Amino acid sequence: MKVLVTAKRVVDPDVKVKLDGSGNLDLSNVEYKLNPFDEYGVEEAVKLKEAGKADEVIVVSVGTSDSQKEIRTALAMGADRGILVEVDEDEDLDPLTIAKLINGVVQREEPQLILLGKLAVDAENNQVGQMLGALTGFGQGTFAYRLDIEDGYAIVGREVDGGTADVKVALPAIVTADLRLNEPRYASLPGIMKAKKKPLDVLTPDDLDVEVDAQVRVVGYELPPERAAGVIVADVDELIEKLRNEAKVIG
Amino acid sequence: MGFYDNFLDEGQSLLRESCKRFALKEIRPFADEWEEAETFPRELYKKAAKAGILGVGFPEAVGGSGGGPVEILMSVEGLMHGTSTGVTVGLGTLGIALPAVVQSENSELIDRIARPVFAGDRIAALAITEPGTGSDVAGVRTTAKADGDDFIVNGAKMFISSGVRADYIVALCRTGEDTHGGLTFFVIESDMPGVSVSRSLKKTGWRASDTAELAFDGVRVPKRNMVGELGSGFFAVMRNFQTERLALAGYGYATAELALEESIRYARDREAFGRPIMRFQVTRHKLAEMATKVTAAKTFTYQVASRMAAGEHCVTEVSMAKNMCAQVANEVTYEAVQIHGGMGYMRESVVERLSRDARLLPIGGGTQEIMREIIAKNMGL
Predict the structure, then answer these.
(1) Tens digit of each residue's pLDDT (9 = 90 or more) over A172-192
(2) Which residues of A touch B52 (CB under 8 A)?
(3) Does A192 touch chain B (CB under 8 A)?
(4) With a cut of 0.90, is the ipTM above it?
(5) Where are the alpha helices (DSSP H) in B162-311?
(6) CATH number of the domain located at residue range(s) B235-378 in this protein
(7) How much is the CA Rg of chain A, to the nearest whole Å?
(8) pLDDT tens-digit series, residues A20-35
(9) For the domain with range B3-118, which CATH number is right: 3.30.110.30, 1.10.10.10, 3.40.50.80, 1.10.540.10?
(10) Out of 3.30.1370.100, 3.30.70.120, 3.40.50.1820, 2.40.110.10, which CATH number does the structure's domain B124-230 have?
(11) Which of A121, A123, A209, B296 has its CA 20 to 30 A from that of B135?
């Protein structure tokens, strides 16, 4: 079984991103890393390989050439080869465009399983996996906290309100990874050295016959308004009075 | 192009991040607890081994993870994000204990002693300093006297990091009268009769790392535990000091950098006279000065590491880096405590710990004075 897994380059979630005053992000001096949810996907793919259930793990990233580093991270964790779909820095990418580009790779590689993080921690769109499902026509199991591959099916454990639910999806399938799916390993120095020798192909959107034409564009960033200080009410009656007459949230 | 791209290749950069991630997840949440307990779980060695961190700087052929000076520096820098120098040091004692064993090219000794340590199953410590000798390595008085196929070791060792629970103590012993040629390393196993921990020492800082005074009373050590040739000890010490000093420089700038980050955070949150103390010029200037020192120390150390990696002999520069970083660590943590005010003096502040941890840096691994002596000598003064 061939597994395709995504690796998006995101700003380190521990870094507080500032605005530059003209509605843009100030990304100087920020560090980047592999999207944590994609990391769960990579770990799961490598585990499948170690368990003998996958033959090859291919990492794909869509981004500038800088994203090669996140692909290398995934290769250092144990993936076999990487594919970067390279786009220009000033190119707007919306989830549908990214899904189309990944679909292009899917058509070339014909994987049986596609693992994605359920979302990327930068924009938090949570759409690419689902859109890829629509584009490929494959079944999907989203928000996986558990994954088993058995007899041509992916059994995906999902956390739902009040409990868990399993879905059984015929391969080829799309699975998006949630927290608790596994504990991603650390890229070790020997792994990093091996990763340097693993193949990393660079493709363009043209190679994949995909036109980059985002329908959703970022027009600017602004911080949410600062919250005004709260007030302490004396009793429940006052609270109700304020909710009714000041906040007007109850009738 | 960022700061790191000037010095690190992609792999080194990944290693730095990987070690940092390990520290943030496996060390930082427990650092306060382990510092108070003056130890950390043995299990952490196993985890660090699995992540390939323990063996950095040693060839894969002997069970290490590969890499040279730059990689060693990155592992130190990354691990320091755990905010406990003690834990970093405790995990790192094999870095000073095993070089002589590995360089001996004695495959039996490497397989029996070094591999289990790289695997995180055993702990190794280096024992040179004695109650009566420190920087003066040739003054070692612990003796190893040949007795048939064995050596009988008598003496005491002082300030031994990881000494309390080390399984293997790589100890420098006097085997002959020649000042330098009469010293040899032996691997003394902690369960050999006659080995005892005289004291578990209580320290100002580095508290999560155990430190021992050890006594060897007629310990019978088989000849197969001799490291390298008879009389090769002093030269092994000299050979490996450079890497240790580089690592200590790493502790220094990393300590300072953490203190700076903590101070920036605190200065933004802490209010005095109706506004965050960051709004006072005096605070901003203090932080600017701290950042300048951190950047200078870090840049210099990276440069020295790169030169060492390229095979250059940098005794002067690595001694300078060690001293500079130790000084920067102490100056910056001092100001960090000052910015934190009363809170900076409380155990619950990271900067409180860092300020105590920094104090050892001009002392351990070659004192500031010895470093200056080396520098002055190499300057031809």
Answers:
(1) 999 999 999 999 999 999 999
(2) 186, 188-191
(3) yes
(4) no
(5) 233-269, 281-309
(6) 1.20.140.10
(7) 21
(8) 888 888 888 788 999 9
(9) 1.10.540.10
(10) 2.40.110.10
(11) B296
